[in-house]
Amino acid sequence: MAGGGTAGAQRRAWLTAALLSVALLVAPLLVWLFLPRPAPVMPARPEPAPAELSRPEPEVSAPKEAEVVAAAPPPEPPPPRETVVASAGPVRGVVLDPEGRPSAGAVVRCREPPGASASTDAEGRFELPPEADGCEATAEQAPFGDAEPTRVAAGGDNVLRLLAAGGIAGEVVDESGRPVEAYLLAIESFVPAGTADRGSVNGRARKVLDPAGAFQWGDLAPGRYVLAASAAGRPPARSPSVDVEAGRVTRGVRIVLPQGATLRGRVVDAASGEPVVEAQVELDSVTSSGANAISLVLTDANGDYELEGVPASGPFSVRVRHDAYVSKIVPGLDARGAGSARADIELRPLGDDGSREELTGIGAMLSVSPGGVVIADVVEGGPAALAGLARGDVIVRIDGESAADLPLSDCIQRLRGAPGTRVTVGVEREGRALDVTMRRDVVVR
What we know:
Elements: H1 2-34, H2 63-70, H3 81-88, E1 91-96, E2 107-112, E3 117-119, E4 125-128, E5 136-140, E6 150-151, E7 158-161, E8 166-174, E9 182-192, E10 205-209, E11 214-220, E12 223-231, E13 234-238, E14 242-244, E15 249-257, E16 261-269, E17 280-284, E18 297-298, E19 304-310, E20 316-321, E21 327-333, E22 340-342, E23 345-347, E24 357-361, E25 364-369, E26 372-378, H4 383-386, E27 394-398, E28 401-402, H5 408-415, E29 422-429, E30 432-439, E31 441-444
Parallel strand pairs: 1-7, 8-15, 16-22, 16-23, 21-24
Antiparallel strand pairs: 1-4, 2-3, 2-5, 5-6, 8-11, 9-10, 9-12, 12-13, 12-14, 16-19, 17-18, 17-20, 20-21, 24-31, 25-26, 27-28, 27-29, 29-30
């Protein structure tokens, strides 16, 4: 009995285990069959690219919008040349001396077109404004010669090289060929190499003391020079044109100083006729450089004076000054090859009209420009102004003779003269030639 009960209990336990196993297998199947199924997971559909979207047709009720879309704005015109140049930036470069070293303090300027200029720094470098792009530039610095004109460009490797200096060597003698031991030597005129323009006459002068009358002037920029020499009792005389080349000394230059004449006379008060004491009498505009070894003289107690060393021939002028009188320039004097000449002079006392100087001529002030001798100004109401001459006119002829090679001092002397005498002046103005004949007159300024 006991063994049968045990076997029945084992069968019941095995049956229970079998039923539990079946339940575990059937339960998931029932859940899958009777519960609602989730929506299938689909991959996201890509959005169509904007280019693939069809463009909507324009609405008929909005014609203005259609016109605006259809009418594209006109293309902008290209910027003006100035804007293009400005965008290129400044023009930079360097100036070198003849040995290839940077040259500080050199002046760089545009020749064609003119206008822009700059100075080099301690390293020889310069900077021109953007509008200088493409200009023809040169550089200058004493005592060297000007650099060869060079086209410069923004962003380019711009190098300007100064030319080596040259020199002039020679002697000063009298009319017999004997050396003049003591004299004053000056640069009368200068034309830089490579140009027809005249350089400025700066009045550089030096005293020379040499038993043989010899001189040597170095540190000269290449170009064409005229020198002037003068000595006590000998009026200034000029050398022939001298060509100076870079790095070379031009030798064999000779200047002949002839003996001058003596100008005598008396200076008196124009109103009373009384002598003017201690009036200064001196040569005027005898050289273009202003260098002149003929010292001024003073009138004595009788108003008399003697000025030694005036030109023995050809017209010359003297200037007479006194603090209480209007200064007077007396033109057209000529010793005519004689040893002496005379000129008595009247001075007007200073008045309330403000005038300080009286002269006889055409009433024009002259100066040297790159194009030649030019009218710097005219006196209002003077012969030149009344004849229509104006500032900037370049003098090309005087009484039919070319003035192209005449120094400033010669032009001045030829335009001066006695009141009432005629002179014909040819000038060039803005490319046009103009000849004017006028009567010289007394001009007070």
